[in-house]
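Incident log, structure service

09:12 report received: a user says their structure output differs between two submissions of the same chain.
09:20 pulled the input from the user's history:
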Amino acid sequence: MNRTTLSLIAGTTALAAVTGFAALSAPDTPGADTAAKAAAQLPVERTSLLCPAPSTSDLAETSYTSFTPVTKGTGSGGKAELRAATEKSADAPADGKDEGTGKDDGKSGKDNPAEPVLTPKEPGKPVTGDSSGGDAPALVGTADGRFAPGWTVQETTEVAAGTGRGLQGVNCAAPDTDFWFPGVSTDADRTDYVHLTNPDDSAAVVDIELFGKDGALKSAVGEGITVPPHSSEPVLLSTLTDERQTDLTVHVNVRSGRVGAAVQALDDKLGGDWLAASADPSGSLVLPGIPKDATSVRLVAFTPADADADLKVRLASPSGLITPAGHETVHVKGGMTTAVDLGDVTRGEAGSLVLTPTDRSVPVVAALRVVRGKGDKQETAFIPASRPVGTRATSADNSGKDSTLSLTAPSAAAKVKVTASAGSEGGAPVSKTYTIKAGTTQDIEPPVPGGLKGTYALTVEPVSGGPVYGARTLAATEGGVPAFTVQTLPDDRGTVAVPEADEDLSVLQK
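09:34 re-ran on a clean worker, output below:
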């Protein structure tokens, strides 16, 4: 391998350490010399998170919880902060010009820096903040150094009455360029918004596609939506199409730039919640953490492929994998959204839905709409298909009595370590190890920090065995309504694989 190739690898490696994203491929030429050794997992050095505007209701009460797990090898420097999406940080260019357009935006980051909404003080201890009413903005967060690996921010909103009343929660997510949201609706009782947040100094251009039971819905206004720099745009789905359908899939595709995207699904009768993006299209999917007292579960699935998908439907229960009677399989037509009512599929026990191909594998996205309660005392939450926990995953904003941690090992038994952090206002961290049997879901009683004051975070780390999927449910009964929200626990992407090299990469070829 010549030094030009090594220089390219060195540049990619440096990018990986800074951003957490890198891909290196071995040469395809037979017999080619490969200098890269086994990749080392190093902590990411910088990360970004975006929180959508929580609510337009004057009755909304929103809390934010920020937490970074303690990670070895990060050093002692760094910081993290959350700011309004309309404001630049103090690190913005001093001349106040937008780096993408060169225009003066009137907000010089160093001459007129905005105060952060939330600023964590140290890894291992949560920091909380709150806001009231319907004017709270979307937030843009950045973290570097020791605060970056595994940084997690939870946004939780209580709405006392009106459309979407109940508990709404979402994990603030990293910006990206492609999102799938099965489970949205344009029904008369639903008010669904896609929130698009642009953290960068240049405008993002976004296409929003809608897919119903018969395929793509016509929508000229869904193409070429511009999201200005440092701003957030809520797009009401019913304004993109004249068709009213109960079950739709939304595809958010970013033509230029990057955005954070999340769907706020509000129902006039059944409350509401945030719908996070489904895991990338895959032949097999796991939707973890269905509450054991769910009274109604609705599966919504979509395949972007031209071919149809036939999926085996199984529930990972505390005793093993079972097939729901009458719902052994589901047929998903290519390019069309399919919905199936599974009823009270959990039958009073913890459960997770496992979808696998009956024959050939066709990529699918999926989500569950889950209802708790009866009559006019019902509340809704959503569970998208999730990535596995991987190396580590964290849920913030736990209180100890109203939090349920659900862990699933769909294929092989797994041993998992769960760590409860120190409390936001005091308390000592504590860890406990659990064994999850193959094909089961366990609602575990997580450890609680000693002397807990305030809220705390739960960090899940697989120790051995097969892949583990997780979800955390927050619950709060309000006026007899069993309000709740569910967040899945995918890998926090706190580390990145950085290959080692045999040669000194410090000298570049001239």
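09:41 both user submissions now match this output. Likely a transient worker issue. Closing.
09:42 reviewer note: The two ends are 16 Å apart (CA to CA). The helical segments are 3-19.
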